[in-house]
Amino acid sequence: MATLSVPASLEQLGAVNEFIAGQIPEGLAALLPQVELAAEELLVNVFSYAYPGEPGKAEVGCRMVRLDGVPFFCLAVRDWGAPFDPFSEAPEPDTALGVADRPIGGLGVHLIKSMVRHYSYSYHDASNCIELYFALPE
Amino acid sequence: MATLSVPASLEQLGAVNEFIAGQIPEGLAALLPQVELAAEELLVNVFSYAYPGEPGKAEVGCRMVRLDGVPFFCLAVRDWGAPFDPFSEAPEPDTALGVADRPIGGLGVHLIKSMVRHYSYSYHDASNCIELYFALPE
Amino acid sequence: MQHTSTDRDGVTVLAFSGRMDATTVAAFDEAWRARLEAGANRLVIDMGGIEYISSAGLRGILGLLKACKSGGVGLAFCGIGEMVGEVFRISGFTGMLSIHPTADAAVAALA
Amino acid sequence: MQHTSTDRDGVTVLAFSGRMDATTVAAFDEAWRARLEAGANRLVIDMGGIEYISSAGLRGILGLLKACKSGGVGLAFCGIGEMVGEVFRISGFTGMLSIHPTADAAVAALA
Ligand SMILES: Nc1ncnc2c1ncn2[C@@H]1O[C@H](COP(=O)(O)OP(=O)(O)O)[C@@H](O)[C@H]1O
Ligand SMILES: Nc1ncnc2c1ncn2[C@@H]1O[C@H](COP(=O)(O)OP(=O)(O)O)[C@@H](O)[C@H]1O
Fold first, then answer.
1. Domain range enclosing B103
2. How far apart are CA D99 and CA D79, in angstroms?
3. Count of domains for chain B
4. Which residues sit with their C-beta closer than 6 Å to ligand 2?
5. Where's the STAS domain (chains C, D) (predicted)?
6. pLDDT at position A100 over 90
């Protein structure tokens, strides 16, 4: 798996996007916006919440995986903050609310779940490990 | 992820089983025979075919993973042989054949597929990476 | 992210281009706040040049929506590309916005 | 893997215990081959002590099945535990075997 390690800082998003663009196999370029979006959502959360008041790092990895015989582009994001599973702990937003009642924020995890076919979370080796499985474009 | 690295040799199966038994969380002991079976099937193949005429190694890892929000016990097996995806390349056996027509062998991958909820294969960092997701006992 | 601001028949058209993400949304916020402070009371947001938006961008848009609603400012959108449209749809933003195919149509809707 | 061999009314009962895997199946193969070479023509395999079987074990069982079929040797099984039974079922072995709840029943079936 090609991996990129970055300090936990918002200005790294550009480097992450460049890395992802270089990893997406030819023919799968249509996935790029979704993968960049998912990476941004996860990393912004890591940069904002995983290391309160201290420096930290994140790791991003890309690889092709066959899950149950079906090929996927897989994005992995890892951080060394306190255990936090965004998929079970972040509340589901109500996307039917109108302007006045809409809380600001809380849409990141929802966007990811909507764009991937499968997502996984595990905590091991003192790190949060998230894997996102993007279905290949037809 | 707790991992064990072993030389590619059949006599390591005992050490692998011991490692797995130590990794299965309390309350999931009912999974042990299935996980040991899957590990044996994969490792016997690695030991037999992955390193023809040369020494090699295999790595076994265990961890809990939430995939699509559902908790699984995950067994990971890794080798550094030539790329080989047992799930797509090993032929499906015909389990309806009688004694006379039954070929010897070819059941290992079928047993694994029957016992896990999800399986994945990827080739990266010069290694074959297999992950098996066992549903937790009720 | 870049933007241009044009006055058309008393409607302020703010046209954005580039990426609307966590590192650039502040520029979006500044742009519309400056227009509202300058007294604009009808606003068209032309997203024709926006190729990418994340939840940070949605946050900027929601701030704009709330400000226009409470300030009685007319607001319309145009130039929603494929990626932006999908993110709007998934987030339930499509129903909250007045969306038009072209800047002309958006300006006309606020006339 | 351990085994014992008993003669009951001319039927050879081979009782195995332990794990039947890639490292032990050779002992299984040796045990039944020795019995056939010694002239046994009715064989009961008691798996009551087998807590684990892998595809290597299945390979041993299939070898035994083929040998008995071609040699005209009567063969019956008993003592199939939960794990072994599931592996037999998944592999389609259940239908190829004459399976009985107890050694007595297996011996009687070959009488
Ligand atoms: N990596 C993380 N570590 C700790 N807490 C987190 C992390 N990511 C998200 N959170 C918590 O989950 C909440 C929801 O996250 P998210 O859906 O991205 O919305 P928001 O727009 O509020 O960041 C955050 O407000 C924060 O409290
Ligand atoms: N790790 C591996 N590397 C290379 N080839 C393999 C590997 N594992 C299995 N194979 C090939 O796939 C075939 C089927 O494997 P399997 O289903 O386990 O049956 P068998 O009982 O014949 O080993 C093997 O005979 C071998 O040719």
1. 2-135
2. 9
3. 1
4. B 45-46, 49-50, 81, 84, 86, 90, 105-106, 108-109; D 55
5. 1-110
6. no
